[in-house]
Amino acid sequence: MEDRPDGHFYSDDKGRTWYESVTAVLRSYPKGQKFYEWVAKNGYNAENIKQSAGNVGTSVHKAIEALVSGYEDIDRLCNRYNLGPAEHIALVGFKRWNEARQPKIVCQEKAVVSHRMEVGGTVDLVAELDGEHVVIDFKTSKYVQPSHWLQLHAYAFALHESGICTAKRLMVLHLHGKHETCYQEIPKPYRHDTLRQFYALRYLHRFVDRNDRNRSTAVKFDDRDSPADTLNPDIYTLDNLVIL
Questions:
Q1: From 5, 27, 182, 193, which residue has the greatest number of CB atoms within 10 Å?
Q2: Res. 15 pLDDT band, cuts 50 70 90
Q3: Do the beta carbons of residue 171 and residue 137 sit within 8 Å?
Q4: Cα–Cα distance for residue pair 170/195, rounded to 1 Å
């Protein structure tokens, strides 16, 4: 993964081809009325709040990675990553889930790329549960959004395309204090129709993003000199998708 002023980019061919992140594509997903009310309420501070939440989320993921590796002192992890009470609860929730379910870890914080969909991303966790591979995403926000399922479907497809695993089960592991155990498993099966929704959003995002870049001084697609930057409508024919 490479961080750039205009977002995260992924490559699996030593940097010859770079793809935008799945989460960048999801920014084109409709946010809903409540989101825009929240932005209006917070005004100029809204972006700072979002950025701060993103930084905390990254730290929580690093702390969870330590817990998976066998580190058990949650208080020290919170001090190390400057996490507050809500994040402490999230880590307690993950530890309880890990102890109760004892997942067999396939990969964690795994960067993956889909050349067919021209996107990349970092998968929180792939684990074997009840004899099946499950793609798992950790969420610490109060609510689970519909876009989270598009994200998981894109990851499942990238994992399948990369030959890492074929997972027909997806799960949001919701780590929040509103649950009695501080965690809740929210599972869903892989559905090809949902992947099609992400594919359609990816197609829309390319046009929206190009127009935004042309109106700004940000780095433009063509400046990256990547074959993935040429939009080929034939790529987006739904029949070209592989059904898991």
A1: 182
A2: confident
A3: yes
A4: 12
Q: Where are the domains of the chain?
A: 13-214
Mean pLDDT value of segment 53-72: 84
Alpha-carbon torsion, ordered 110, 2, 195, 162, to 10 deg: -50
15 vs 11: CA distance, rounded Å: 6
- Three-state secondary-structure class, residue 132: strand
Number of H helices, E strands in the chain: 7, 8
CB 224 within 8 A of CB 17: no
User: What does the mean pLDDT of the chain come to?
Assistant: 82
Q: How many CB atoms lie within 10 A of CB 94?
A: 23
Half-sphere exposure of residue 186, counting CA atoms within 13 Å on the CB side?
18
Exposed, middle or buried, 123 (CB in 10 Å: 0-12/13-18/19+)? buried
pTM score = 0.82
Name the burial class of residue 147, with classes exposed (0-12), middle (13-18) and buried (19+) by CB atoms within 10 angstroms of its CB.
Answer: buried
pLDDT for 232 beyond 50: no
Tokens at 163, concatenated: 């030959």
How many Å apart are CA 137 and CA 1, to the nearest integer?
A: 18
Return the minimum-mean-pLDDT range out of 66-70, 72-76, 137-141, 203-207: 203-207
- For the 13-214 domain, the top CATH level (class) is alpha beta
Model confidence at 30, in pLDDT bands (50, 70, 90)?
A: confident
